[in-house]
């Protein structure tokens, strides 16, 4: 994505930026990243554009991050974005004269996200999200005991800043 988009202050308050990296892709790396587009008329334009300068790669976290990021980006077609979603990132920062210069990329599925995270952050471990019984078990064995201990301690001590105290207790567990 372009380095001049003010994402941190304006657009990301509902996301937790997990990783951030400034990179310059070679044409080979851009080809590998956009391999799903290979054979389309857009592919050579994407490769050329994505290897033409520095990018910011972000790994963003939150519940429903893919759909949330897509909503912020707006449609891939910048003309459509400007017409129907004027406050979207692509409407504001995309080039309506060159559809491959729509300013941003976002994963289209959880599987794509894992591949793309490993592409830019190869050292990062991507663990599957817990759901159902596994989530309930994790909460019951790992989160709830620490939370209960912290809340009991809060009732006894009544600190000036309870959030800081709970944070310290959680960090020590």
From TrEMBL:
Pfam families: Dpy-30, NDK
Limits of the Nucleoside diphosphate kinase-like domain: 7-128
SMART domains, A to Z: NDK (SM00562)
CDD domains recorded: DD_NDKH5-like
GO terms for MF: nucleoside diphosphate kinase activity
UniProt cross-references to InterPro entries, sorted A to Z: Dpy-30_motif (IPR007858), NDK-like_dom (IPR034907), NDK-like_dom_sf (IPR036850), Nucleoside_diP_kinase (IPR001564)
This protein's name: Nucleoside diphosphate kinase-like domain-containing protein
């Amino acid at each position: 994505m372009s380095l001049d988009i003010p994402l941190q202050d304006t657009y990301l308050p509902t996301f937790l930026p997990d990783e951030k990296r400034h990179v310059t892709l070679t044409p080979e790396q851009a080809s590998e990243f956009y391999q799903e587009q290979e054979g389309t008329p857009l592919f050579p334009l994407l490769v050329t554009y994505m290897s033409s300068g520095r990018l910011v790669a972000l790994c963003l976290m939150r519940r429903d991050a893919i759909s949330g990021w897509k909503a912020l980006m707006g449609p891939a077609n910048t003309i459509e974005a400007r017409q129907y979603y004027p406050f979207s990132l692509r409407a504001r920062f995309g080039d309506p004269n060159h559809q491959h210069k729509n300013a941003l990329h976002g994963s289209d599925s959880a599987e794509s996200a894992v591949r793309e995270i490993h592409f830019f952050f190869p050292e990062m471990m991507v663990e599957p999200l817990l759901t159902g019984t596994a989530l309930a078990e994790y909460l019951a064995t790992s989160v709830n005991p620490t939370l209960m201990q912290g809340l009991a301690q809060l009732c006894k001590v009544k600190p000036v800043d309870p959030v800081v105290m709970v944070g310290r207790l959680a960090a020590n567990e």
